Structure formats: C-alpha cells, structure tokens
Amino acid sequence: MGENVTQRRLADYIGMTIRRLRMEREYTLQALADESGISKSYLGDIEKGRKNPTTDVVEAVASALGVPARRLLYHAALDEEDPFRESEQLVLEADTEEQIEVRELSHLAHRLRPVDRRLLLELARRLAR
Fold this sequence. Notes:
With 129 residues, the protein is mostly helical. It has two domains: 7-81, 434 Repressor (Amino-terminal Domain) (Orthogonal Bundle); 95-129, no CATH class. It contains seven helices and no strands. α1 (10-24) packs across α3.
C-alpha cells in the first residue's frame, strides 16, 4: 500500500453532484441560492467540497433542484471510479416527462414578474377546468 492515493470525501461528491444538477438545469449559483434560501457563497463552498452541508441544507438544495434529497445523496455516494458500479445504479427513479415539465414551469414562474405570474396562474386554472 505504498501508493499515494487521495481519497475524496463524501462532501466532495455532494458538491460535485449539486454542481452537475445545477448546470443541467442551467441555474446560476445565484439562482440556486435564491431558490433554496442558502447563501451563494455557502453553496459555492459546498460545490467545491469545502463545506459539509447539513441535512437541512441538502434538503433545501435538492428541493430547489427538483430532486428528492435521498436521490441527490445516492448519486453523490456513488464513486464514479468504482469498477463495481453498474450503470443502471445511476437511475434510482427516472423523472417522468410530466415531472420535468412541472419543474420547468416552476423554474420559469420564479423568473416572472408578480403580475405576469398571476396571469400565468389564472391561465393554468382555466385550462385545468
């Protein structure tokens, strides 16, 4: 065991997973901070593996990203370099098209002015009848 192998901590994987999910959703760090209620600087430190997020923080960030907290942790716990990992392990629960669309609607609604958001809500109520 003379090899110099650096071990990554779970916090590193949590940070990388949060960053990957944030980038997939095209969120800026500030947008994720606004959605989650967690400061931008703290989120940046989490993404870089400098901070260990509490379960409350993980839940808030996961909610803002539209994924269950357990799924975020599950993906973070998988070492991408693990030769025994099976590719199907990455899919804990696939998002349905409806879930993706609802998440996108929620994301877009947050970016609207309040008056426009109310108009969108009224339109959605009419369409749902």
